[in-house]
Specification:
2 copies of one chain form a homodimer. In chain A, 52% of the residues lie in helices and 7% in strands. With 231 residues, the first copy, chain A, is of the alpha+beta class. In chain A, strands 2-1-3-4 form a 4-stranded mixed sheet. In chain A, α4 packs antiparallel against α5. Chain A is globular.
Chain lengths: 231, 231
């Protein structure tokens, strides 16, 4: 069986968990506390980052970028028929739009919101850092940034059926993965962004999302609406 | 003619400038002070980031990820025959290795070194920020991070002809783009890393590198070796 090394609230890991579920690839999930820089994990991925996908009878793929593109290329290779098209559908210009948005969510939204929230609210606790109380200036800046991103997601969801166009794509999985992490720590102002909420409710109800909604961090439960499909 | 909007020391822009030169795509270069958030530029790329490639009779491509993959796909499309193979050569597993390293240089090296140096040494000056003197704690941390990355580049260059394998690839352009920016601000300890230096000397002498070596920031010249091919 394929093996996916991940961390439960890592948005990059979550985007790949959604992708493999949607593609119907059965994977054993192995969690890695990547911040401990354990030698066996560094031997697998010298970057020390999750996700890592070890394909049965195939290569070791490190990072959401290499994994998502490899799975996308299965569309034209022997391994998976056309199912990889699910991640990067359409012609070259449409795939470029998927990638523009993947970059937006995995680099810009991650840098301006998600990573900061994970550092302040989750990793500090897991690493037993003495400074375990979130910095209020950081939280204020992150919340302002998040409203800008929610507005953009709402704009895209208003203009299109899915974020990158008429077809679901890895852009939706990348965005939903980021938002699901932000939602776990109770920071998404859903009521202010009804169109973005409606898009998220659609993707949240897909079977591939169930694993994400079952995740818990000991001592830091999510808000009650986190795993409610009618939130 | 195609039009590439960039900023001269932005490593993402530089990776695409190298790629289009190597592919022989003639592009008009237009510089954008992206930190000013000018409306015409935001209309082109709502993320407010460079590079942006406007293809003649083609789509507008935003960001190094979407641009590099689009140019790579020209390998199998009508537009450019096999020349796109230059960016992501080989079979699926080899392309995954290219992408692992592109991610390493454009996300990890950028975050841990290049972006910090640009903020401290270049953008503060260009934005006439009052805090224009580099933070010595930041510089110390960045220099330690850079030695780790230089060691990894040296390891790769020792094991392989080019960073991702026997063929040159976008991983080399991404790494060289980052290092050229770091070198402009005089921070690369070349003498400690002779194998990495030898790889960089090879890529620096390619014709596509000339434009990068001619760039200057008014009032902040590079060190003398910056544009010396026998540095």
């Amino acid at each position: 069986m394929h093996k996916l090394t991940h961390f439960r609230l890592c948005p990059f890991s979550r985007s790949i968990r959604l992708a493999v579920q949607e593609l119907g690839l059965a994977c054993e999930l192995v969690e890695e506390p990547f911040w401990e820089w354990r030698q066996p994990f560094l031997a697998l991925n010298p970057a020390g980052e999750v996700p890592v996908l070890e394909l049965e009878d195939g290569p070791v793929l490190c990072g959401a970028y290499a994994i998502s593109e490899y799975l996308g290329e299965m569309a034209t290779g022997d391994e998976g028929g056309r199912r990889g098209m699910l991640l990067f559908p359409g012609r070259a210009a449409e795939r470029a739009e998927v990638r523009r948005l993947v970059d937006w969510f995995q680099r810009k939204l991650d840098r301006e919101v998600t990573r900061e929230l994970l550092v302040e609210k989750v990793y500090a606790r897991l690493q037993h850092s003495p400074a375990a109380s979130p910095n209020s200036d950081t939280l204020r800046a992150v919340r302002a940034n998040l409203r800008y991103h929610m507005g953009y997601i709402g704009y895209l969801a208003h203009e299109r059926r899915w974020l990158a166009g008429e077809e679901i794509s890895f852009a939706d999985f990348a965005a939903a993965a980021q938002l699901s992490t932000i939602d776990y720590v109770g920071e998404v102002p859903w009521e202010e962004f009804p169109v973005a909420k409606s898009w998220y409710a659609r993707i949240k109800s897909r079977p591939g999302f169930r694993g994400l909604l079952a995740d818990r961090i000991p001592g830091a439960p999510p808000p009650p609406h986190y795993d409610d499909l009618d939130f």
